[in-house]
Design brief:
5-stranded mixed β-sheet, 19 strands, HATPase_C_sf, phosphoprotein
Length: 597
């Protein structure tokens, strides 16, 4: 299966080009074929008309031969006499023979002239080839239907038994002065030569195109080829009832100066019908189209071959164009492979083609964003590892201190130092909550106890009194929060809020309430100390404690949760910690270990 765009473009272009060239070649061939066939048909029809006119002289000469003899004064006088003697019969017969021989010698188209009469029945010895008994003619099979329809006319191709040759004849009645039929004149023309007068060549050997000669009445007088050679002739002719003739089928019978294509057994023929000549005869020609249009078809094949060569030559050209067009895409694919291997700084060049320019611009923008995102992700991982290290360090120290302080507590009780033991007990509780079995979240109740222990210890250390109040709903204390997030801000209040006012009473309140659309909780640490310097922000913080708390909240709860620190209007600082609502432990110890936390 083809998958490369360049190959698809070449295949599509070649296919479309081939389709276009094939259409053009076929249309050109059809147009040229129709044009040339029309021109050839018209030229052939013109030649046929000229041939028909040329044949007119032959027909006229043959008919004139019969008519001349029939109306010759000598012939009229001979057949007007009756009761002749043997000698007179001999003289008449000789005169008739001389006459027909003279006429036949003057008309080169005429093969022979025969006279059929019963005038010499009493002198039968006088009959020979030129003068024969009338019965020799009337007993022929074709004579009766012929003579019933015409007085004088043409007899189509028939066999002359005496000569044993195929003849086409003109038969003319001999009438006496009383208009009685006293005999017949039969002028014979060799059938094989009759249509040779059309052209100066042998029609049978050199022209494989049948001709049909129609007389004035549309009857077929002569054909050049047999029906076995051209069965299509049977489709265009039909016998005439009660006559010896055939004629064209009614569809073509009245046509003149006409040409059209006809079909016979999946072969086409050009049918030509001439215009009537001077004798009102017509000539029909049937030409096989394969031979007639062979050169035209050869030319059409040449056109198709030229088109095929053009297609083959266009393939390397199209391939080059396709390669040039898809070159920017190839560069982009290579760049994509580099990105897949982690090389995000790869860039593609701009292109003057608008679509490629947009793709390249978007690709460069994508790689830039991926590079920035990767840097940000690496920075976050670094920060996470650092936070984890700090958390681990903070867990190591409490283990050791917890055990040590527990031992100090029992030693102080042995020496009746209960206040020391109480401090050690508070500190130990802080460490225990700080460990929390390695969990990241503890209940808010434990977080408040952790802060309370720190306050109790600070009350022993600080000279000022500390008024510490907690106002958190009881139901909220069951929520889970990141551990050790309050003690840092309480420590900052004691450390930085009262160092210049030693006699002032410290007031530190911790409050809890819902925030947002009741989808988060807010823990607030308030003091009445000296407050923050003007324009203070998180970057002014010198230690890492605040940053540590903020990073842990962002890491465990999401970046939408954070810490806000600002001054109170009445003096002091407000610390607001916004956290999500966790009614169950969000991070078990196992999950934390699996996620690398």
């Amino acid at each position: 299966m083809i998958r490369k765009l360049k190959t698809m473009m070449v295949v599509c272009f070649v296919f479309v080009n081939a389709l276009f060239l094939a259409g053009v070649s076929y249309s050109s061939y059809q147009y040229f074929f129709n044009f040339t066939s029309e021109e050839i048909s018209e030229a052939k029809l013109t030649l046929l008309n000229e041939s028909a006119n040329k044949l007119s002289g032959v027909i006229q000469n043959v008919r004139e031969a019969g008519t001349f003899i029939a109306i010759d004064r000598t012939v009229v006088d001979i057949f007007d006499k009756s009761d002749i003697s043997p000698y007179e019969a001999l003289v008449e017969r000789n005169e008739l023979k001389n006459l027909v021989n003279n006429v036949a010698s003057l008309k080169q188209e005429v093969y022979s002239v025969e006279i059929y009469t019963d005038r010499y029945q009493d002198h039968a010895y006088l009959y020979d080839y030129n003068v024969q008994p009338e019965t020799n003619l009337t007993e022929k099979a074709w004579f009766e239907p012929f003579i019933e329809n015409v007085d004088n006319g043409w007899v189509p191709r028939h066999t002359d038994e005496l000569m044993d040759r195929e003849m086409i004849s003109y038969v003319h009645r001999i009438l006496n002065q009383r208009s009685e039929t006293v005999g017949y004149i039969k002028v014979n023309v060799l059938a094989e030569n009759f249509l040779e007068y059309l052209v100066d060549m042998d029609l049978y050997d050199e022209i494989n195109e049948p001709f049909i000669l129609l007389n004035t009445g549309g009857r077929i007088i002569a054909e050049t080829h047999s029906r076995e050679e051209f069965p299509v002739l049977n489709d265009i002719t039909v016998p005439v009832e009660d006559e010896i003739y055939e004629r064209l089928i009614p569809e073509y019978d009245e046509l003149t100066d006409h040409h059209q294509l006809i079909r016979k057994d999946n072969e086409y023929y050009l049918l030509l019908i001439s215009q009537p000549n001077y004798e009102q005869w017509r000539l029909v020609q049937v030409i096989p189209v394969d031979d007639l249009y062979a050169e035209t078809q050869e030319l059409g094949i040449n056109v198709l071959v030229i088109g095929l060569i053009a297609i083959l030559l266009s393939i390397p050209i199209v391939y080059g164009i396709g390669k040039w067009i898809t070159k920017p895409i190839s560069h982009m694919v290579k760049a994509m492979h580099k990105v897949e291997k982690g090389q995000f700084d790869v860039q593609v060049k701009r292109h003057y083609v608008e679509e490629y320019d947009i793709l390249g611009k978007n690709f460069n923008q994508m790689t830039n964003e991926l590079s920035e995102l990767l840097e940000k992700l690496e920075q976050e991982n670094t920060n996470r590892r650092e936070a984890e290290m700090r958390a681990l360090q903070s867990q190591i120290m409490p283990h050791f201190l917890y055990n040590t302080l527990d031992m100090i507590k029992w030693k102080s009780l042995d020496h009746d130092a209960e206040d020391v033991g109480d401090m050690v007990n508070k500190l130990s509780k802080m460490l225990r909550i700080g460990l929390s079995g390695g969990l990241k979240f503890i209940r808010l109740r434990d977080e408040l106890d952790h802060a309370k222990c720190y306050i109790d210890i600070q009350k022993q250390r600080q000279p000022q009194a500390i008024d510490y109040k907690v106002r958190v709903p009881a139901w909220m204390k069951d929520y889970y929060v990141p551990k050790i997030i309050l003690q840092l801000f309480i420590e900052n209040s004691i450390k930085h809020g009262y160092h210049n006012v030693e006699s002032r009473k410290m007031e530190i309140n911790v409050q809890g309430e819902m925030c947002g659309k009741n989808d988060c909780i807010k823990l607030t640490v308030l003091d009445n100390g000296t407050g923050l310097p003007d324009n203070w922000n998180f970057s002014d913080a010198k230690g890492i404690g605040i940053q540590n708390v903020r990073e842990r909240i962002a890491m465990y709860c999401g970046e939408q949760f954070d810490v806000d620190i600002y001054n109170r209007e009445k003096g002091g600082v407000i610390v607001e910690i916004r956290l999500p609502i966790y009614k169950e432990q969000p991070f078990t110890k196992g999950q934390a270990e699996e996620s690398g936390e």
